[in-house]
Amino acid sequence: HLDKDNQMQLLRDHIKGVENLAAEEGDKIGVSHIMSVIAILHDSGKYCDAFQSYIRQSQDEALYSKGKVNHTSAGAEILMNRYQKIMVKSEHRTLLEMLCYVITAHHGLYDMVNIEDEDAFGQRLDKNDAQEAEMIFERWSCDLQMNVADVDKLMQEVYKEYKTVFLQKLRDVNDRKEYRFYQGCFVRLL
Hints:
The chain contains nine helices and no strands.
């Protein structure tokens, strides 16, 4: 995109810049890998054709208007598509959902379930069809020079941090409401 001074910033440069800042901040509390994975996936939806058209033609508000092209759910879909069948333990699943929530909510928090008791989180994840999600992943991984093995390795480090920083510290919390409260605090922190 062009910034206010008409300087171009490539998507990969933005993502890498956010990753560096996020990892640096996360390192202060021992979650640098968690913050890295969130950062590298937060704007992966910008690799879709619709967003690329939007960003290139952003002066034509009649064609594309800000907020009309979803880019926030693709990174979460990448994680879910790759790991929901691998990360099957309850603690793995919770971590995966926490990461996905933070990615999809990076422009603002939202309720996981709406007032009609519908799954707002699931609805956000179903924005891209499988073919488009695969294309986004291919463009993203090529541009960032990351392959599936790189992401798998990063996710192993993410789980180690989650286990150390969250699970082990709350192992003596027996009250479910209290545990969920701390879980919610951790998500908000991320």
